[in-house]
């Protein structure tokens, strides 16, 4: 493409080249050269082409990065060219100019015509038509169908979970990661095995690091855990390592296969076995597992008896018991062994582990519990959903050249399900009366009322307009998240259960005191303290120097968090650790999802010793809550800006 050619021209020179010289070499106008430079620089955090009165100069240290970007451009890839054409046609109601597209793609006209045939067929299958008038290619059909198609494309572009893991890693290129994933997936398919996306993502990440390590001749020498070399997981590991070594040119040791098998074993399922579960596993075991799932339903209020989950759960536990009986262990070097971040899914795994211990006398290792929690987590995992930001459009030129459709399409393309365009107003006198939306996008000068957030934009929605709207949406979504979590703070914490400065030097005495106060206030039942101690005996919940004791049961009248800290002491001994802050939880079944969301966020805060110190420096309950909500605000802003 032309931008690629421009970079190559600039690379050859150690001094700036004027736009007039470049325009002659490339047979385009000086204005086009300026546009190329602007577009190239937009792809990078800092300008890679410096502009001055003497002309344009390429920063040579950025050459490889620029080449990597353009070698992966749509011009070199039919699938990407097709996607780009579809996007442009969808986003441009007035139609796209064939000559401009041809120049931007920098491919032959015959190639682009073939691409267009595929695009025409694509739209035809979706009940839409492409019309070409002179050099203008335009989409024709029902507006509702066009918007539906845009939404589907937007969702498809954001659904590749595994690829997102590697967006910023620099060990392998995107193409190399694709090759790696294809080898792994093909090997799984060849043996008719499947696994959940989370485990596949963990596996790919582990292999990215392994390949990079082996290419530097840093091979593992030993395996610390026993490996069953007759297992399907081991055979799968042999095949994967062999194919990867050929594709990425490295040598590997026996220990590499052994360690990979420890990661794979226990996390693959043969779909055929799911269909014939009753033939594979004896009825008494099926009955016992159904009993555990029914108990989970009673305690946690979650029904796991659906066929899809039930079959996977039974096969997983069956394999887990077989591995333990044979002395075969699993491992995952990529898995964070902290078990407190997601209280619900780890508690579900602990509950099952406790049931198995009581019923068949089997102790479940923590690694197995962690993978069992993943099984529950994949079933339950759902990010906290917030209502989409509602957008109202103010434009007296509505219906002029379909501008209202163009506005809506552009907004929905950029923001997808984050927004809902729910109102259009074309009469100035009706603005204040009719608009009831989170954000107003106006093509005329309009200040709005005190409670309205207004973004004034041009008729054609420029990149600058998109940035202005984005800032408003980001600010509004951050505020919603902060309000949500801060409201949970007021809901879960109560000054009645606040023990700042209470002098106590023994864990059991503190639990007894806090638990009895819960009981006195009618928050928990008489068995609460014993149930809590039973859970702590299985697996204490500790982050850094913070303890979060709780019961595996969810029978509290309401969810409450009791707080203890004492600045005058060095903390309190908790098993092998010393903690300075204790958050004792009473959990209500109906509120457990909200608490789980809350602790996902709180985990990040409590992982920072400085934040914990700020909390325990507070001399009163109001100051503690104020500081906690301040930390929540900071954490939400940090997370949102990273994931935005």
From TrEMBL:
Domain PTS EIIA type-2: 491-631
Pfam families in the record: HTH_11 (PF08279), Mga (PF05043), PRD (PF00874), PTS_EIIA_2 (PF00359)
Leader sequence residues: none
GO biological process terms held by the UniProt record: regulation of DNA-templated transcription
Residue ranges occupied by any PRD domain in the UniProt entry: 280-386
Protein name: PRD domain-containing protein
Key word Transcription present: yes
């Amino acid at each position: 493409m032309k931008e690629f050619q421009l970079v190559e021209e600039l690379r050859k020179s150690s001094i700036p080249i004027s736009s007039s010289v470049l325009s002659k070499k490339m047979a385009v106008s000086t204005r086009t050269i300026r546009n190329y430079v602007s577009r190239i620089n937009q792809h990078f955090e800092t300008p890679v082409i410096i502009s001055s009165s003497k002309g344009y100069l390429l920063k040579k240290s950025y050459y490889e990065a620029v080449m990597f970007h353009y070698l992966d451009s749509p011009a070199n890839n039919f699938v990407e060219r097709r996607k780009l054409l579809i996007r442009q046609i969808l986003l441009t109601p007035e139609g796209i100019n064939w000559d401009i597209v041809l120049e931007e793609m920098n491919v032959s006209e015959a190639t682009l015509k073939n691409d267009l045939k595929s695009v025409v067929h694509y739209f035809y299958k979706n009940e839409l038509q492409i019309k070409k008038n002179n050099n203008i290619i335009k989409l024709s059909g029902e507006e509702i169908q066009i918007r539906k198609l845009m939404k589907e494309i937007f969702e498809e572009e954001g659904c590749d979970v595994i690829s997102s893991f590697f967006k910023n890693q620099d060990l392998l290129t995107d193409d190399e990661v694709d090759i790696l994933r294809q080898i792994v997936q093909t090997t799984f398919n060849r043996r008719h095995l499947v696994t959940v996306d989370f485990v596949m993502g963990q596996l790919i990440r582990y292999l990215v690091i392994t390949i990079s390590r082996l290419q530097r001749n840093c091979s593992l020498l030993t395996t610390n855990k026993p490996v069953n070399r007759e297992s399907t997981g081991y055979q799968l590991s042999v095949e994967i390592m062999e194919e990867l070594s050929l594709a990425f040119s490295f040598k590997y040791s026996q220990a590499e296969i052994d360690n990979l098998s420890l990661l794979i074993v226990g996390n693959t399922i043969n779909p055929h076995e799911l269909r014939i579960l009753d033939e594979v596993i004896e009825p008494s075991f099926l009955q016992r597992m159904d009993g555990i799932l029914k108990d989970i339903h009673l305690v946690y209020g979650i029904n796991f008896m659906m066929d899809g989950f039930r079959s996977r759960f039974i096969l997983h536990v069956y394999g887990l018991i077989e591995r333990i009986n044979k002395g075969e262990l699993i491992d995952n070097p990529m898995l964070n062994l902290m078990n407190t971040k997601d209280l619900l899914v780890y508690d579900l795994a602990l509950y099952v582990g406790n049931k198995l211990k009581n019923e068949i006398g089997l102790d479940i290792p923590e690694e197995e519990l962690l993978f069992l929690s993943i099984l529950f987590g994949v079933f339950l995992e759902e990010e906290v959903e917030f209502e989409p930001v509602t957008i109202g459009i103010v434009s007296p030129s509505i219906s002029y050249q379909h501008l209202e459709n163009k506005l809506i399409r552009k907004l929905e393309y950029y923001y997808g399900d984050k927004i809902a365009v729910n109102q259009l107003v074309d009469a100035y006198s009706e603005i204040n009366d009719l608009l009831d939306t989170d954000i107003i996008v106006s093509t005329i000068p309009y200040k709005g009322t005190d409670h309205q957030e207004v973004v004034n934009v041009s008729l054609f929605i420029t990149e600058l307009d998109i940035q202005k709207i984005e800032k408003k949406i980001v600010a509004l979504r951050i505020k919603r998240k902060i309000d949500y979590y801060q409201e949970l703070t007021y809901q879960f914490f109560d000054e009645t259960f606040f023990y700042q400065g209470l002098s106590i030097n023994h864990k059991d005495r503190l639990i007894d005191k806090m638990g009895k106060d819960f009981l006195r206030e009618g928050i928990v039942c008489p068995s609460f303290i014993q149930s809590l101690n039973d859970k702590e005996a299985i697996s204490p919940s500790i982050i850094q120097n913070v303890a979060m004791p709780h019961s595996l049961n969810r029978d509290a009248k309401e969810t409450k968090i009791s707080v203890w800290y004492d600045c005058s002491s060095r903390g309190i001994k908790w098993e092998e650790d010393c903690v300075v802050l204790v958050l004792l939880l009473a959990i209500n079944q109906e509120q457990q999802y909200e608490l789980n969301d809350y602790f996902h966020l709180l985990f990040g805060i409590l992982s920072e010793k400085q934040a914990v110190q700020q909390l325990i420096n507070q001399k009163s309950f109001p100051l503690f809550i104020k500081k906690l909500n301040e930390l929540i605000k900071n954490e939400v802003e940090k997370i949102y800006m990273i994931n935005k």
